[in-house]
Amino acid sequence: MGQDQNGEKPVVIVTGGGSGIGAAAARRLARDWRVAICGRRKDPLDKVAAECGAVPFVADVSDPEAARALVADVVAHFGRLDGLVLNAGILVNALLGDMSLDDWNQQLAINLTGPFVLTQAALPHLLERKGAVVSITSVGGIQTGPGLAAYSASKAGLQLMTQALSYEYARHGLRANVVAPGWIRTEMGDEEMETMQIADDLEGAYAKVSEFVPARRAGTSDEAAEAIAWLLSPAASFVNGAVLAVDGGSLVANVGMTFFDKIMEGGGSPH
Ligand code: NDP
């Protein structure tokens, strides 16, 4: 989004802007936007703010009052709100039979209910500016894996919530889209690699989980940030309700074909 007729840059909130994809999005968006970042920890927010000029707001998006106050504080600070990046999220791995109700509720509260409350609070401001929303879901919200019952449910819910938003308000000039990342090297990605104990080090673990990903590697936060920036920008002015996978092609890979993928790598033939 460019400057408006008053020469003012538009304003965007990036939740979870202190690390990983959110921090990369804040740095990338700071070229064209005035950026507000939020998270629960102050130190990482301050570090990203010092790097790119974003304004930090300590807030827990799973607390409805705090989420509403965040929107009010950002609008009070900047005088307007044009964009919302719903990026904050957590993953707690547990098989469905073993998952505590607390772990279920926490993932739903941060990954789904928080974005709903934030979006509702931001909506009048976004409509006034004909703004845009980008939600960060996951390929795990489209397909799933062991231990992901709550995470996948929350991300699938966030996708459909975003698409409902895109449907209901497109006629008023609002756009809402989804970025669905595959494995991205961040704090969350690293924690997953460590939890699963599938290799001696992080490099080995990312190589293992990417073994059947067509691109044969995990992505970077900057690669996810480019997709977010594009969907928010006027370059995507007729893109609404879309789900853009940033996953090195993992979603096109059918699990039943991975055996052939291995055999045919390097020009081999399955016959
Ligand atoms: P990080 O753990 O680095 O980032 C998550 C961010 O969310 C942190 O900055 C964290 O800050 C913030 N956050 C968590 N809970 C809250 C809360 N209650 N209120 C406010 N902020 C909160 O991981 P990623 O950058 O990887 O994750 C970003 C998004 O991308 C997530 O939604 C994740 O599900 C999604 N994703 C990531 C993938 C990956 O492989 N990395 C793959 C697919 C999707 P703090 O702890 O200070 O609150």
Task: Quote the average pLDDT.
Answer: 96
Shape descriptor reads globular
Portion of residues in helices?
Answer: 40-55%
Q: What is the helix tally?
A: 9
The major β-sheet equals: 7 strands, parallel
- State the end-to-end distance: 53 Å
Task: Give a quick rundown of the structure.
By secondary structure, this protein is α/β, with parallel strands linked by helices. It has helices at 20-29, 42-52, 64-78, 101-129, 149-169, 187-196, 202-209, 221-232, 258-264; strands at 11-15, 34-39, 55-58, 83-86, 132-136, 175-181, 243-246.
Characterize the structure shown.
- The protein is α/β, with parallel strands linked by helices and 271 residues long.
- It has helices spanning 20-29, 42-52, 64-78, 101-129, 149-169, 187-196, 202-209, 221-232, 258-264, and strands at 11-15, 34-39, 55-58, 83-86, 132-136, 175-181, 243-246.
- Strands 3-2-1-4-5-6-7 form a 7-stranded parallel β-sheet, with helices on both faces.
- Helix 1 packs across helix 8, helix 3 runs parallel beside helix 4 (101-129) and helix 4 runs parallel beside helix 5.
- The chain is globular.
- The model has no long low-confidence stretch (mean pLDDT 96).
- It binds NADPH dihydro-nicotinamide-adenine-dinucleotide phosphate.
